């Protein structure tokens, strides 16, 4: 009983004292919610932004759908960079973004990958209908944009009905990457930028032609409830500038004219 | 004076409806298990609320459904000894006894507790836990704990049923002694007729939630009120016979029970 | 250890400690009420408290945003009153961990409280002790192992909380990236070696907590 009492006391103490140790948020900074696939590129742009404008840039990386829900719920976000038009459209409908600031800043391509050491005769998307290919990992088309793009590509090659039974659906693109890297599946479909992060473990077989799927473009916009609109706009300008493009390009992103 | 009870209580498939009184004596509640004996004790102590009726001890009313009186168990002056004794396993002998002294002034508690320990021959066991002492010692701790708060009546729910025969005989003598020393009414629940006869001043026989007979042990033994009581009295181990009968033929067993 | 790893470790411990403290302060009385009292809507309350255990954490997180976000039912009032929102602060991580780990405390403690011998409670009453004294001196001490096990489990769960935290507290490096969130973030950026180190660290720590919890639960059963 004494011990329990002591435990309670310690807990009460923690309750009172620990919040005092909390770090105060700095006064002048902006928060950028960005799709996690943009992490490396945006962190680099963020450093450039801080050195150029002296404003601290705080990132919040996550799945575009979750980031959208956070903003809809009133999260203190200044800039939103999404991996899918759908989520940006949704915020636009709710009037939560400054429409004039919306712009597409990068594009990605869709690639077919296999495990690095795989001894396979697979050469291209068409080959997926071969009997030796048993399992293909793609994102769940209902929730993962990359999965939708994958299905579009398969449709354009007219192989979708023949390979549908081979699909292993995942809840995000990284899971596809992981299955392929571990050799759990024979092949998978991901973005080129994702494939680049694990280039040692996987092999890119083929890049889907641009005409085979809707363009994969990343939209960015200022969030309506921002308290530092000028800083937020400056960040977007930097992303769209030549310097920003150079960084994005370095990380595998492309640009649509 | 003494304890007067009139109680009605319905629970699933069972109805208790009894009225009796006892004076400053040792009375026994006797009957098959399931007859409502333990329930009666809990109703008296206030651990269960009766549907209707009255409980009063020495003319003080503790429960009366007609005027809405229902004194909580904490404030009723009964010392209760449970069938399994209900010693607190996380407390020592001394702590168990002290826990019963809640109503005494702080400076008296310890002295009284040590008095009880001496009186109940528990000296040297003060710091033992209940799993570290013998069955007879546990009994004495349970009695000491129930008596330290100076209750005005004792309620005993088959406290000896788990003991072997020699110890049971010893505890009967002990109970008789304690009852006479403290000179308060005591009500002992048992389904052992031999025990009831050996120990009691008065026997209250229960039959399925009703009273079958209230008399001195001699009269119950020599002049049973009905066939049910005579069956109860006739066999040494009625419970055993009932159970055997029930296994062989439930319908017959029910006849035996009625 | 690198600064960011150290920060995440400290933040995780801080969030788990504070939420576990809150869980003890509220979970034990709640479990007691559920175990010992009868009232209308009791099972509904139990279901409500247990729901975060079975809901996908992101769904719990979504509910938390709907309730506590700046545009949320409660969050709106707080924002109007103080100009402050819990979202994207470490308090949000505490709130998320609290909600997700509370069921473990309530379930374990309720079971432990209910397993206390009813006769001991009755004995305490007949010895003149009130409900409160009985709870403090008989019921809680006898349920102690269950309560300690529940506390350790809650702490471990709070340490590992990810989904709801990611929704409500976000993934702000150096601010709200607890260990699980940092791991997610590192994996997302392809920094596998750092991620692997944190995965091993988390696994080892959680293993120790569960070992302690097991030691205690085994003894109450």
Describe the protein.
- The complex is a heterotrimer of chains A (257), B (258) and C (221).
- Chain A is of the alpha/beta class and 257 residues long.
- Chain A contains 10 helices and 10 strands.
- The radius of gyration of chain A is 22 Å and the shape is elongated.
- Residues 16-26 of chain A have low confidence and may be disordered.
- Chain B has a domain at 3-77 and 152-215: Rossmann fold (3-Layer(aba) Sandwich).
- Chain B contains 10 helices and 11 strands.
- Chain C has one domain (3-220): Orthogonal Bundle (MetI-like fold), CATH 1.10.3720.
- Helix content of chain C is 81%, strand content 0%.
- Chain C has helices spanning 3-36, 42-54, 57-68, 73-82, 90-114, 118-126, 131-142, 144-160, 163-169, 179-188, 192-220.
- The model of chain C has no long low-confidence stretch (mean pLDDT 91).
- Classes of the chains: A alpha/beta (257), B alpha/beta (258), C mainly alpha (221).
- At the B-C interface, β7 of B face α6 and α7 of C.
Condensed summary:
The complex is a heterotrimer of chains A (257), B (258) and C (221). By secondary structure, chain A is of the alpha/beta class.
In CATH terms, the superfamily of chain C is MetI-like
Total strand count of chain C, please? 0
> What letter string, H or E per element, gives the SSE order of chain B?
EEEHEEEEHHHEHEHEEHHHH
On the 0 to 100 scale, the average pLDDT of chain C is 91
CATH superfamily of the domain at 3-77 and 152-215 in chain B: P-loop containing nucleotide triphosphate hydrolases
Class of secondary structure makeup of chain B? alpha/beta
> How are the strands of the largest sheet of chain B arranged?
7-8-9-3-10-11
CATH class of the domain at 3-77 and 152-215 in chain B: Alpha Beta
Helical residues, percent of chain C? over 70%
Q: Tell me the number of helical segments of chain B per DSSP (H or I, 4 or more residues long).
A: 10
Pairing-aware structural class of the strands and helices of chain C? mainly alpha
Q: Kindly, what is the distance between the CA atoms of the first and last residues of chain C, rounded to a whole number of angstroms?
A: 41 Å
Average residue-wise pLDDT of chain B = 88
Coarse shape of chain B: globular
Our Rg estimate of chain B from Cα atoms comes to 19 Å
The value of Rg of chain C in angstroms is 19 Å
CATH fold call of the domain at 3-77 and 152-215 in chain B: Rossmann fold
